[in-house]
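Students often ask what a holo structure prediction actually looks like on paper. The answer is less mysterious than it sounds. You provide the chain, you provide the ligand, and the output is a string of discrete structure tokens encoding the 3D arrangement of the protein together with zinc ion.
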Amino acid sequence: MSQQVRGVIARGKGEAVEVATIVVPDPGPGEAVVKVQACGVCHTDLHYREGGINDEFPFLLGHEAAGVVESVGAGVTEVAPGDFVILNWRAVCGQCRACRRGRPQYCFATHNAKQKMTLLDGTELSPALGIGAFAEKTLVAAGQCTKVDPAASPAAAGLLGCGVMAGLGAAINTGGVSRGDSVAVIGCGGVGNAAVLGARLAGAAKIIAVDLDRRKLDRASGLGATHVVDASGGVDVVEAVRALTDGHGADVVIEAVGRPETYKQAFYARDLAGTVVLVGVPTPEMTLELPLLDVFGRGGALKSSWYGDCLPSRDFPMLIDLYLQGRLDLDAFVTETIALDEVEQAFARMQGGDVLRSVVVF
Ligand SMILES: [Zn+2]
Ligand SMILES: [Zn+2]
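The corresponding structure tokens follow.
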């Protein structure tokens, strides 16, 4: 029997989102239905609403979620009803060339549920990032469910499913930050601030947070930034980072904005043989011009981070354990909890930089 639940729908480009009744089918082979307990509001949801990702309206928004597995389809062994899970948007296939070479965090053939959730009139919904968790229940591929310790708060745990994982992983997995490193983070929204937290967790000795917004820098200080650079008012970011690193630049610079000008800052604010990690998402029209001699002469690594290069089955349970031990302050990212019908207002607060994360709690 399919079920009818409430979910947040984006019907058309730029239109305000609305709560509608959606139909969730019973899980088929390899699928699971999850009772959502909490789901964070992410820029990507807004991006879907604005038509910036694709035109497959209507979308069922929401993708940073935790909840309890309600039912599973045939052949599902990774999770069972009653399990507390974080939803991920990169369920690995186990068979593509990346998976076969033992690098499933780069899986090139990740998958979602095969069946579609619909509106009451049968219109098929496109779930954001294959999840669609601004809904009381959602249908996903079983591999999108990662079981973690149920002692964790659902609001905090769900954030690991997207932006916070992207930032933590940009520092720890992609950037390979290690003890004693100097790290600069350019752009301190949810992802950048998670990168600050990740750098601290990895033992960085110096963590420099760069942003134009004083409120974001204050949050970065609270999460472990040792220095802040307020880039408003024409401050030279490269010079400021060099001045804080004995004139050399940082070992790892994390670019969490996704723009050519901030990428160039990251490139030149990095020490020789250092690493730049791009985790901010650019738009299609952006291009980058750099002197090739500088790319060669400065050495090191220029990397991009997909979802923090995370492997959910490896990283989510470990990070939740650190959270429960008081070593990873995920609660700091939950600025406010809201109801399902308050997502549109939360978009406005997010755009205004007022919140790190608003989280819908059911
Ligand atoms: Zn694969
Ligand atoms: Zn997200």
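The two ends are 23 Å apart (CA to CA).
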